[in-house]
């Protein structure tokens, strides 16, 4: 692997008593699409702002391409940012907005204009070049904001929830635009978002943050199927989380006794101690539902509480005898085979290989 | 709806009365400035521009007008710069005692003018700065800065705080961001503040009278004419002062306040 483009080494950022980022160590590779995801106040935006030089770390080191950046002013960096508010200059036209950075860097007028128009064309908004940005639609403004940053030909583009103001169908389109741009340009994208669907759809790697700490780093698939801890398991997707006592552990499987029953779980890298309290997750879409008692090793009898219907996918909420809550996700057309209503008794089961043990309890 | 109608009539009358009280003296002054009779009596005499010709021929009035122009021009510029600086410091920085800082800046218009004038005179003469044209400019800059600040602050409050950071992020230094982002964004408010501070300075009498020495501005000149005798010239000058101030205030409106209304509606 080549040298990382960005390194965070034990970076901390405090605002008075509030710790926004606790102790971050993270490498960002050249050319990767990295998403930083978390709920509001988790420190994701502060991390991005430190990269842009808009905040200084309280402790630790941030390096970009090997150079220590802690005290480098924002305007001496090559880290253009696409703002959540877009922050387009309202008194300028689309083209003048795109030219702004080049003007600050002293590029001459003709060259500025040429490059700005080239980028506006590339973003398919060339025809609006001389329109005031106030008169453009949300999607067009978004493209102006991207062009304004990318015209600087940076090694790395920072994006702070850039799609949060757009309608759902426009978000999907812009996701396509962004991933394609990132592939074509081959530069690093650091994308901050609270939206799981945006992060998972676009990123090569996702960093999940919680209260100033990194909760997990991994590919979208890793994080979705193998959440590292309870926070990630609850934050991501629809997971069933069960907690119990380790009864017996082999290198292959571990037997865990929970109030809802005793289940087999895949043994993680470090074998859990017998007698300790551990938790595991089963993703809601990997749980099967049947009316007859199944033969699978991991099964539990449960009662339907309610259902949530989103388009073609349905999530059923159920409860086992001891009050453990279960979620099952399936296609709506599958569900039609069963005649279910609140209170119906069903069997739930899952494969041992789909039960993933979490770190800690 | 009859109750509403009665209320509407009462409110309409009330507004009418306010307008009469405000504008009657001005209309009176305008009418008699164009009347041939020496004393303001009814029935009116003939239409005449005699008084305007007289003031146009009076070098003292010309000098006063020139002084007023210089004073209001300079103090508008200085007051607006001061006002902009304080408005920007409020926008950009948060610091301890910011509340008292802002209150202190907004204080001058709340002090009775006569007290302000006396204090200015005492202070400027102690420094050996009184009795000059620029004594009035200094005093008026202090007096008008809060108006400029209020207008520019209103504009800055509407600015996305990310705009300035976006300019830095795109390679602009703090000065470049100021020049290419903050100033253009505030331009309508700055023009409006220049007009308004010029109008305030142009009309101001008490402070000008105390610190001006022999350098009379128009309001001071008016007082001196009135002190001597009743002279319809005053009506002519008054009309001129009124039109100048109104023009400035309306310009201020056009540049800023009407835009605000359009933005919010």
Question: What's a quick, concise take on this entry?
Answer:
With 361 residues, chain A is α+β, with helices and mostly antiparallel strands. In chain A, 24% of the residues lie in helices and 35% in strands.
Furnish the topology, listing elements before pairings:
The complex is a heterodimer of chains A (361) and B (265).
Chain A: E1 6-15, E2 18-28, E3 33-37, H1 44-52, E4 59-64, E5 67-68, E6 81-82, H2 94-104, H3 109-122, H4 138-150, E7 156-160, H5 168-185, E8 188-193, H6 196-202, E9 205-210, E10 213-218, H7 220-225, H8 230-235, E11 239-249, E12 253-258, E13 261-266, E14 277-283, E15 288-290, E16 298-310, E17 313-320, E18 325-331, H9 332-335, E19 345-350, E20 356-357
Parallel strand pairs in A: 3-8, 3-9, 6-7, 7-8
Antiparallel strand pairs in A: 1-2, 1-4, 4-5, 9-10, 11-12, 11-14, 12-13, 14-20, 15-19, 16-17, 16-19, 17-18
Chain B: H1 2-33, H2 50-57, H3 59-92, H4 98-105, H5 113-126, H6 133-157, H7 162-169, H8 174-203, H9 206-211, H10 218-228, H11 233-264
Helix pairs in contact in B: 1-11, 2-11, 3-6, 3-8, 6-8, 7-8, 8-11, 10-11
Q: Overview of this structure, please?
A:
The complex is a heterodimer of chains A (361) and B (265). Chain A contains nine helices and 20 strands. Chain A has a six-stranded mixed sheet, sandwiched between helices. By secondary structure, chain A is of the alpha+beta class. The mean pLDDT of chain A is 91. Chain A is elongated and about 75 Å long. Chain A has helices spanning 44-52, 94-104, 109-122, 138-150, 168-185, 196-202, 220-225, 230-235, 332-335, and strands at 6-15, 18-28, 33-37, 59-64, 67-68, 81-82, 156-160, 188-193, 205-210, 213-218, 239-249, 253-258, 261-266, 277-283, 288-290, 298-310, 313-320, 325-331, 345-350, 356-357. Chain A starts with 5 loop residues before the first strand and ends with a strand. Chain B is an all-alpha fold. Chain B has one domain (50-264): MetI-like (MetI-like fold), CATH 1.10.3720. In chain B, 78% of the residues lie in helices and 0% in strands. Chain B has eleven helices and no strands. Chain B has helices spanning 2-33, 50-57, 59-92, 98-105, 113-126, 133-157, 162-169, 174-203, 206-211, 218-228, 233-264. In chain B, helix 1 (2-33) packs antiparallel against helix 11. The radius of gyration of chain B is 22 Å and the shape is globular. Chain A: InterPro entries: AAA+_ATPase, ABC_SmlMolc_Importer, ABC_transporter-like_ATP-bd, ABC_transporter-like_CS, Mo/tungstate-bd_C_term_dom, P-loop_NTPase, Transp-assoc_OB_typ2. Chain A: One of its GO terms (molecular function) is ABC-type transporter activity. Chain A: Belongs to the ABC transporter superfamily. Chain A: It comes from Roseovarius atlanticus. Chain A: It holds the Pfam family ABC_tran.
């Amino acid at each position: 692997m080549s040298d990382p483009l960005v390194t965070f080494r034990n970076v901390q950022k405090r605002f008075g008593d509030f710790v926004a980022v606790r102790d971050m160590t993270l490498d960002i590779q050249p050319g990767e699409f990295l998403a930083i995801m978390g709920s509001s106040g988790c420190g994701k935006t502060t991390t991005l702002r430190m990269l842009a030089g808009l905040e200084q770390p309280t402790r630790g080191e941030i390096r970009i391409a090997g150079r220590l950046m802690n005290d480098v002013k924002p305007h001496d960096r090559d880290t253009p940012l696409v703002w959540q508010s877009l922050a387009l200059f309202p008194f300028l036209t689309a083209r003048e907005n795109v030219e702004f950075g080049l003007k600050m860097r002293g590029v001459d007028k003709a060259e500025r204009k040429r490059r700005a128009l080239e980028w506006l064309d590339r973003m398919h908004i060339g025809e609006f070049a001389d329109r005031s940005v106030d008169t453009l639609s949300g999607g067009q403004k978004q493209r102006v904001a991207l062009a304004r940053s990318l015209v600087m030909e940076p090694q790395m583009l920072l994006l702070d929830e850039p799609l949060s103001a757009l309608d759902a169908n426009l978000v999907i389109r812009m996701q396509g635009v962004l991933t394609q741009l990132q592939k074509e340009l081959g530069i690093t994208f650091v994308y901050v978002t609270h939206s799981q669907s945006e992060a998972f759809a676009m990123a090569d790697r996702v960093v999940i943050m919680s209260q100033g700490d990194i909760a997990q780093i991994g590919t979208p698939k890793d994080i979705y199927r193998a959440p590292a801890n309870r926070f990630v398991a609850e934050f991501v997707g629809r997971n069933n989380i069960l907690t119990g006592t380790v009864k017996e552990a082999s290198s292959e499987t571990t037997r865990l006794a929970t109030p809802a029953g005793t289940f087999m779980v895949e043994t993680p890298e470090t074998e859990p101690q017998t007698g300790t309290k551990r938790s595991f997750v089963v993703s809601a879409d990997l749980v099967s539902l049947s009316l007859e008692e199944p033969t699978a090793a991991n099964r539990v009898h449960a009662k339907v509480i309610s259902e949530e219907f989103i388009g073609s996918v349905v999530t059923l909420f159920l409860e086992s005898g001891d009050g453990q809550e279960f979620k099952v996700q399936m296609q709506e057309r599958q569900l039609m085979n069963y005649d279910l209503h609140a209170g119906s008794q069903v069997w739930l089961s899952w494969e041992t290989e789909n039960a993933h043990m979490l770190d800690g309890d | 709806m009859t109750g509403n109608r009665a209320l509407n009539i009462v409110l309409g009358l009330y507004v009418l009365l306010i307008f009469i009280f405000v504008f009657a003296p001005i209309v009176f002054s305008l009418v008699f400035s164009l009347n041939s009779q020496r004393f303001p009596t009814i029935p009116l005499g003939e239409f005449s521009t005699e008084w305007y010709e007289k003031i146009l021929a009076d070098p003292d009035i010309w000098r006063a007008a020139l002084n007023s122009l210089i004073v209001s021009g300079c103090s508008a510029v200085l007051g607006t710069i001061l006002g902009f600086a304080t408005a920007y410091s409020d926008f950009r920085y948060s610091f301890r005692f910011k509340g008292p800082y802002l209150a202190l800046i907004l204080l001058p218009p709340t002090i009775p003018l006569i007290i302000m004038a006396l204090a200015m005179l005492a202070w400027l003469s102690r420094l050996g700065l009184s009795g000059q044209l620029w004594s009035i400019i200094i005093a008026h800059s202090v007096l008008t800065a809060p108006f400029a600040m209020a207008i520019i602050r209103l504009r800055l409050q509407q600015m996305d705080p990310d705009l300035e950071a976006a300019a830095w992020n795109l390679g602009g230094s703090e000065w470049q961001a100021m020049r290419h982002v903050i100033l253009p964004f505030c331009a309508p408010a700055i023009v409006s503040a220049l007009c308004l501070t010029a109008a305030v300075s142009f009309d101001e009498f008490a402070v000008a009278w105390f610190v001006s020495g022999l350098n009379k501005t128009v309001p001071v000149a008016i007082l001196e004419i009135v002190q001597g005798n009743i002279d319809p010239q005053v009506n002519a000058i008054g009309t001129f002062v009124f039109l100048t101030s109104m023009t400035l205030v309306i310009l201020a409106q056009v540049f800023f306040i009407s835009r605000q209304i359009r933005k919010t509606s």
